[in-house]
Amino acid sequence: MISNEIRFGCHPRGDGGPLVVVPHIDGAPLTELIDRFEISAEMEPAGDAYGGLIPEFFRFGPMQDHFLGRSTNAMGPKTPVLGCECGEWGCWPLMARITATADLVTWDAFEQPHRETRDYVPFGPFRFDRHQYDDALRALIAAIGSDSDDPGA
């Protein structure tokens, strides 16, 4: 099975504010991947709608748990992997089902919950080697610091 590669980009928001987390899949920011998909599918609105998650603004719980689909806040069966470009994840989130096994982490069943008629079936799935995924999560936790006291499972 061919797997994708993930890393979690972490940078201060454009205004010099808090850290923003953007997943990168096979070297491309997820924000760009979803923009290209929505534009090519002629979805409206599309393009520049998504931004990264801002852990400082929201209680996602430890990033290790969040990005393994085990967020401490009950957000339903899916996990926000991107938020709105405004910084508020609930405004315009990209949700995904995250399934983790001993060998693999899969992101699939993407949705934009404010546009229930949109078809995201052709987007993904993304499959990541569990060891590479865990390494990327450890790098994220080290970068944001605030979750380093709780490395997760």
Q: How is this structure best summarized?
A:
The chain has 153 residues and is α+β, with helices and mostly antiparallel strands. Helices cover 20% and strands 28% of the residues.
Report on the structure:
- The structure is a single chain.
- By secondary structure, this protein is an alpha+beta fold.
- About 20% of the residues lie in helices and about 30% in strands.
- The chain has three helices and eight strands, in the order βββαβαββββα.
- The strands form two sheets. Strands 4-5-6-7-8 form a five-stranded antiparallel β-sheet. The protein has a three-stranded antiparallel β-sheet with strand order 1-2-3.
- A hairpin with a 2-residue loop joins β2 (about 20-25) and β3.
- The protein is globular, with a radius of gyration of 15 Å.
- It starts with 5 loop residues before the first strand and ends in a 9-residue tail after the last helix.
- Mean pLDDT is about 85; it is low at about 145-153.
